[in-house]
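HUMAN: Mind sharing a backbone?

ASSISTANT:
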Amino acid sequence: MLLNEHKSKLLFEKALIPVPQGTAVFPGEEDGFSTDFPLPWFLKAQVLSGGRGKAGGILRIDDPAQFPDKARKLFNRSIKGEAIPFIRVEPGENIEREFYLSLTVSREHRCILLTTGRQGGIEIEKLGSDNLLVQKVTLPGGIVPHQIRAAFFHLGLEKEQFQPFHELLTKLFGCMLDNGLLMAEINPLILTPDNRLLALDGKVEMDDNFADLNPDSEAFYQREHATLEENMARDAGLSFVRLPGWVGLMVNGAGLAMATMDLLNFSGLPASNFLDLGGAADQKRMETALELLFGDAQVKTIFINLFGGILSCEKVAMAMTGALGGKSPQKPIVARMSGKDASAGLRILRELDVDNLHITEDMQSAIGILDTLRPAGSAAVDFPAPLDIPLGPGPDPAGYSSAAAFTINQSTPVLVQGITGREGRLHTQLMLEYGANVVAGVTPFKGGEEVLGVPVYNSIAEAVRVHEIGASIIFVPPRMAADAVAEAVANEIPWTVCITEGITQHDMLAAFVRAKGSSTRIVGPNTPGIIVPGQTKIGIMPTRPFSPGPVAILSRSGTLTYEVADRLTRAGIGQSLCVGIGGDPFIGTNFVDMFEMIRNHEETKVVIVLGEIGGQAEENLAEYVVRTGFDKPVISFIAGQTAPAGKRLGHAGAILDSGGGIMDKLETMGRAGFAVCPSLEAVAETTAKALK
């Protein structure tokens, strides 16, 4: 959640960080505005995009009589296409010097970066490397005294300014921790002639997971920056992003949603939105989603694409039936269902027997139907054709060997953390039904109970006195999940699979620091888990799509894993193991770690990598494959290739950094010998060729 300057400064004030006086003024309040601020005043447009100074978004006035006209001038302006919902009025400040100061969670470095600049301003990145000092701050430790000293001396401040600077930086870091911030930037931090340090401008980004867990954070969300549709979706718990096309999109799961968006865009049927129902598509969510798409004049046709994994297609069909109220949809709908309870779901929709509803269980058939529904005069949105890179010869041998082994099989004893909760109990039953060797569960203060014949203990320490544990699986709420990971690590459990999503990034950063050097392999968080088809599953994966065979699937997306496994199974290609490495920015076991084990896994002959936009996971894997001479064929598919830069699509990991990079990712994989598939349709065919 990105905060505008006004909200950022309110948060800074709460943390006792010095900021200028300021007040918000909204359209319609221009004529009645008055303040006792000393002149001159600065009128500052409140937008989320950068560069407002260059765009004329900051105006100075020296006479209060100028205020109404200049305020209206700002309200009638837009900055980078963004309307100005309100302005912040501040008195001018005398400036002796300007600096840059920020704290940022770094995905690449897996820590917080403390950055200080001898100069601040709107083009901080162009001031040269000597201007900035960047220091790594780890959690849970935090900033240490020598880092504060280094930052202070880098700025060249006088000795008497050390204590105020120390206090300001300490408070800024406290503000970051207390509010789950991913970024806290002061640019510029100014020194006034009377030796005051002041945050003249500020930008803050709050972790969405932290905001979800702390309702008080809602006060910092500015609804005026979002569209009506975005606010409706947010209120309903839906992930929604507007896009420029005309096909309204509704999918379950961020990975499948991104792949579907790409398929539409590459097929000349441009998507008008990204809408992820998530794992819960009840009638209320379905009603909200349909209301959004029916009410959007840009949407001409709707594509509902569902693969039932945990989600039941039958229940979705029932929710959709209720949402439609037995009437024909207001706009044509193409509904594709596959996976869990798909036959029942399709039957329910067919029995509606209404116009404007087209039903299929195949994505390619759905594309064909959508093409026949193309509205006359629909605007074209051009996308380059997807890269189709055939399987290469593979890297040269490097004489590399690894002692790592994938040790999970049907005899692996499993412990369930959070076994007495609703999700823990449900998936314990499903794991037992598949043949998993679940031997124990843990829930504090529930020790001595039994769940489905499985003994429950108060702690892992109690359980390991009685049982040998090969893996644990975590069904613990987000607030406690990082500590549950730490408990598994402290008890040296060989594998721990963290299913929980919605954990704050700060918590996971601290958990991984604590786990450094441990023998425990952490999978996740926000993962569907692990399945060894025909043997065991330690996770929430549905069993229907999977079958035993020679292909390993490694994926950042649950729904894509199910979709691809189903396509392989239908093509007569089984799987040796399937691991969801997790969709969050910070995860434990990554693609490279899994390849270290798979190179020694005799059952695996081919590896499929299902990646996403954002991060460097796939590039790091390509570098590893070349450097170590990995000799098994690698088939890859990357979802989200047509995503708009800087937009977050679904779970926290699915974001493409501004400036692109997707082509570099794909080409890097191709140079490493990976087959880069242009579509999901091509994955099974390419895999079959590789097996021959």
Summary: Confidence is low (pLDDT under 50) at residues 651-660. The two ends are 49 Å apart (CA to CA). The domain at 228-372 is CATH 3.40.50.261 (Rossmann fold).
